Amino acid sequence: MMAKIPLLEPSDSQECKDFLKEAFKISEQFDIPVLLRTTTRISHSGSVVDLDDDLEIFEKKPYIKDPKKYVMIPAYAQIRHKNLLERWQKLKDYSNKSSLNLISTPEHCTDAAAGDVNYYNSIGIITSGTCFQFAKESFPGVSILKLGIPNPLPEKLVSDFLKDKDVAVIIEELSPFIQEQVRSMNLGIEIIGKEFFPENGEFSPIVIEALYRKFERLNYFKKGYVQILIETKNSCISPLIGKYEEKTFFDNIKTGDNLEEIKKIISGIPPRPPVLCAGCSHRAVFNILKKLKLTVMGDIGCYTLAVLPPLNSIDTTLCMGAGVGQALGVEKAGPAFTGKLVSVIGDSTFFHSGITSLIDNVFNKGTGLVIILDNRVTAMTGHQTNPGIGKTLMGEETTAIMPENIAAAVGVKNIRVINPYDTKKLEKAIKEELARNELSVIICRQECVLINKGKKTTGYFINQETCKKCDLCIKFGCPAIEFKSEKYLINKAMCNSCGVCSGICPSKSIKPEEHG
Amino acid sequence: MDNITVKKYLSECGNKIKNNEIVSVLFSGVGGQGILLATSIMAHACLYDDYDVKVTEVHGMAQRGGSVVGSVRFGTKVFSPVISKADIIVSLEKLESLRYIDKLKNKGIIIINDYEVLPISVFGGKFSYPHEISENIKSFTDNFLIVKALETAKKIGSEKTMNVILIGVLSNFLPIKMQSWLKSIKKVVPKKILDLNLEAFDIGKNLKK
After folding, report:
1. Contacts with A330 (C-beta within 8 Å, 6 or more apart), sequence order
2. Residue B97 belongs to domain spanning
3. Quick check: B98 contacting A, CB < 8 Å?
4. Contact B121/A133, CB-based, under 8 Å?
5. Which of A190, A349, A410, B157 is deepest in the core (most CB within 10 A)?
6. What is the CA angle A185-A188-A189, rounded to 5?
7. pLDDT digits (tens, 9 = 90+) for A218-258
8. Which residues does residue A488 pair with via DSSP β-bridges, in sequence order?
């Protein structure tokens, strides 16, 4: 709002497509960047999309040198700010007239709770994005102003919409962005929203239905807001206000009297967190870091899963590239951590924003150990290439940039490249580098197991005769290792033959299958 | 669940659609079981029958064995992609049927695959896997159907077809034309494994309890 960037918010897949087109048009017309906001549910849902084939081809505009526009030295920035305010005023007019902001009136009302009343006229819902869809189902008989352009808020449209209403219900996820602006318009009517809906988390139809049920309980639909206010005037609080409390409710319980049993069943459901894949090389690395009881500054990637049981070995993860810098900060603040602290970062994350903090470590005389987990791909987001691979995102050949060369170039003296499946060698290297009073980089290089998914491997098995049932293999947390009918077993279909577990077993009972 | 119950449910479901109501189906299971494929098969089948459809999924790192949910809502006009209460839940894994049981509508149906994938949390000793799932489910509903999809899937040669076997079972409860199901499977499933999956669907459709 303060940055004066127009915001478009689609509410389904069709609108994602249509609004994007509109966003480009607005951007061209008003010479301004436009935000297209897709929340979690919009990104993770699908609905029918009509493809229209009349593509509009825009002609490329010639570049015209204009330093007063493109060079933001203070003197020019002041000129541009004035210009922005003028454009913003025009955008407000545009928002008031745009078809992206629309009033959705109920087609029919079969709402038993509503009866015959004029509640259509007395409530107005203002919402945007996915909340519109929830509101449409939960309040079938109510007019809804759907803001396809929540910023700038179409104030004239809002005040026209609310002219004959006595309550405006603002339904929006997270902070009360729309609500506070509508309130500051001083329309003289009740405006509710965040007094009722949570300010955190994603909404669902259940959250919206809760308000509907409250209206129903107050008999609002029959009596109207003013009547309810008179009846409850002694309570001094608006009858509609009161936080929604999330309750898991079961309307499918057979009988009411087994509630205790139900609670017991529900609380006993074992959680199912995601785990690193069978054969993932990250597991081998973090198992060593856990064993050596090191403090680990983490980063963002599949390996962040090492924060969860059974590895429990990551101490911090803030944002991409942060871990390497944090390690330097912790070292400077707490010399006691020297020799007990490492930072870990994936290959693509290192290229993205780890290099600057590595330079910071060299420049400011850090003595820590940076472990680069190079699995030769950007695994977590779906196996895209990165600058280390030698292929562009489009698959064209390009120069492969190697992390060890970058480390050497910025002045790191101690650099090793190790295959993490060789756990003995890796453990020894980590110990040696930690003991050194100088900055070190270890690159753990092993391809992500999903790269050659489906490749036939010989697999490993557990010799039941020598197995001491010590539980260590299960605690390693590989999904291919199972405990069934009092036996420790390796699931052949899942095992990717990394062999790391065989090194963990104290009784040497985990062995590779014979060929054949 | 006998044939009469299935037929009764099917006609109730058809009536709902006629009354402009929305039918919601929730798929639950473990990452890698093909929940999203199952969701996609059903969504396309609904589309071929000219219904409005919305789907949504929660798949936090699905590739990595976490709990996964997919949902399909269809009818004349659908607004919310998110299910408030499901008419039918299809669970590809036993434990996951219990995790989402609060999403089942009163008198809704739950189809459970008799198949266990142990989560890592049962190895710590704090939790134990509820093997006797039907005992627990009974506290919530009598409308459940346990399908032994693993045996059937093994017979036709791939454990990975369990999802489509369950889609076959599900098809008995929904007012969607047979040809639309088949057309959808042909569209969604990769060619290499199409015949296997068509067989799986057929077996699922004709599975008796």
Report:
1. A295, A297, A337, A341
2. 3-204
3. yes
4. no
5. A349
6. 105
7. 777 777 777 777 776 655 556 666 776 655 455 555 655 56
8. A483
For A43, name the nearest residue in chain B, comparing CA atoms only. Answer: B56
Contact yes or no for A18/A149 (Cβ under 8 A): no
* Shortest distance, CA B124 to any CA of chain A (angstroms): 8
Band of pLDDT at residue A331, cut at 50, 70 and 90: very high
CB A306 within 8 A of CB A313: yes
And the tokens for A234?
Answer: 């002694």
Contact A252 B130 (CB under 8 A): no
Among B99, B106, B120, the residue with its CB nearest the CB of A251 is B106
Does A46 sit within 8 Å of B43, measured CB to CB? Answer: yes
Residue A12 near residue B54, CB atoms below 8 Å: yes
**What rounded mean pLDDT belongs to chain B?**
91
CA distance linking residue B71 with residue B82, whole number of Å: 7
Position B68 in a domain: yes
Q: Across-strand partners of B88?
A: B25, B109
CATH fold of A281-445 reads Rossmann fold (3.40.50)
Residue B131 CB burial class (10 angstroms; 0-12, 13-18, ≥19):
exposed
Q: Indicate if the alpha-carbon torsion angle B44, B69, A493, A444 is positive or negative.
A: positive
Q: The domain spanning residue B18 has which CATH number?
A: 3.40.920.10
Which is nearest to A324 in space by CA: A379, A425, A445, A406?
A406
Whether the CB-CB separation of B35 and A272 falls below 8 Å is answered with: no
Question: What residues does each domain of chain A span?
Answer: 7-50+60-97, 101-235, 281-445, 460-512
Assess if residue B209 is contained within a domain: no
Name which of B57, B108, B121 is nearest A272 (Cβ-Cβ).
Answer: B121
A516: confidence class by pLDDT, cuts 50, 70, 90: very low
CA distance A45 to chain B (A): 4
Q: Which residues of A touch B67 (CB under 8 A)?
A: 272
Identical fold for domains A101-235 and A281-445, yes or no, is: yes
- Strand order of the β-sheet with A143-147 is A101-104, A143-147, A123-127, A167-171, A190-192
Distance from CA of B187 to the nearest CA of A (A): 16
Q: How far apart are CA B188 and CA B205, in angstroms?
A: 18
Residue of A nearest to B69 (CA): A44
Judged by a CB distance cut-off of 8 A, whether residue B137 touches chain A is no
Q: What is the pLDDT of residues A7-65, one digit of tens each?
A: 999 999 999 999 999 999 999 999 999 999 999 999 999 999 998 777 878 788 899 99
CATH 3.30.420 for domain A101-235: no
Tally of domains within chain B: 1
Residue A10 contacts residue A16 (beta carbons within 8 Å): yes
* B102 has a chain A CB within 8 A of its CB: yes
Give whole-number Cα distances, A486 to A441, A470, A511, B197, in Å. 43, 12, 19, 35
Q: Where residue B1 falls among pLDDT bands split at 50, 70, 90? A: low
Q: Strands A440-445, A460-462: parallel, antiparallel or unpaired by DSSP?
A: unpaired
In a domain, residue B174? The reply is yes
CA distance B101 to A345: 39
Distance from CA of B208 to the nearest CA of A (A): 25
> Within a domain: residue B182?
yes
Question: CB A45 to CB B56 under 8 A?
Answer: yes
Q: How far apart are CA A296 and CA A324, in angstroms?
A: 10
Q: What is the pTM of this model?
A: 0.89
Identify all chain B residues contacting A134, using CB atoms and an 8 Å cutoff: 79-80, 82
